[in-house]
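WARN retry 2 of 3 for item q-0093 after timeout on previous attempt; input resubmitted unchanged.
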Amino acid sequence: MKKISLLMICAILTCIMSISILSTYVNSQYINAQYFGRSPNILVNFIKQDPDPVEPGKQVEVSFKLDNNGTLASNFVLEIIPEYPFSLLPDESASTFIGSLGTSQDERQTVIVKYKLKVAQDAVDNNHKIKVRYKNDDINGWVTLDNFFIKVQSRDAILSVEKFFTTPEVTAPGDRTKLKIELKNYATSFLKNVKVMLNLGNNGGTTTPFSPIGSTNEKIIPYIEPLASVPIEFNLLVDSDAATKAYKISLELDYSDVLNKNYSKINLISIVVGNAPDLGVTLERTEIYTSDSAGSVVLRLVNKGAVDIKFLNVKVFNNDNVNVIGANEVYIGKLDSDDFSTAEFKLFIKGQNIVKIPVEVAYKDGNGNNYKEKREVELRLYSNSEAKNLGVKTSSYFWWIVIAIIAVIAAYYYYRKRKSRK
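OK item q-0093 returned
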């Protein structure tokens, strides 16, 4: 009986010890598992860029916030990996040694790290990716993070009217003209939804005499590449009763940049309406019909065009056959359309058959354009006999007859006077 009791006591003690040992083993596994399952839990946040946004060619300072929600991180290093369009300033280091990055119960839990970067001059306007990486004693190698972005944007996305011209340069009333415009994108990123509109209505109190032909007065360009030029063209009809002058037209531009910022601007262009002057210079009359003669020569100037002529000046030059006597130029001034005027010169002419008188006319049209043209006016010369037959030159016998008649009359009066004295 005692032996049984002793065996039961031993069995109970054995069970109690086994349960104690088992319980101790289970708690140790849980603790160890809890201990060995914990490590540094690093959070890297991109918190700021200054300035925001940054312009191409400028400097930017970026700030990262480091948080540790796990166990102590020893020998912690953060490194930035700048790639185009970013580069570190010469005195900046890519790596920053933090040392210990603790928890809220231990040491410092949050650290701010800053880097200064240079933005490439030709960087396009966009959100550009920037990379960082970190390491500490608890991990093998680097942990790279690339979900950070720096906003790059030019101060203004500039779309410019680089040049414009019409073909023909001066358009006559009732004719058609082609207006060609070249737009240039001065931004380092593409522009989109570009709308170009000619305001052909009332401009500055004056209604323009132009109407679009073949298309409307509006053009749409889906996008323009960075630093690229794009030509556009409008076909216009000029009213038949349009006055001769330069007309100002508003050119309206609307567009957006890659960051969806909208722009609107108005430019002024001009289209010149008018005709080239048509000035005729001919011989009006002359007193010279034979060679080696002097006399007046009158030139006739006719404005045969639809444009008034202003500041008209006529000049005659000497040559082998023409010698100007006295003033060699005459100022006429304004000569209206479908009108004429004359200019008289005293000349000495020699030569045979056709003599060409060198003439220069200088004037301005209604739009202020200068003209200077060389002309030649033909003067026909005759022989003495031809001149007499044509009645443009009197025979030499005529003068003898005139002299004889004068002599007879003088003799008659002389005779009567002497007779009266006797």
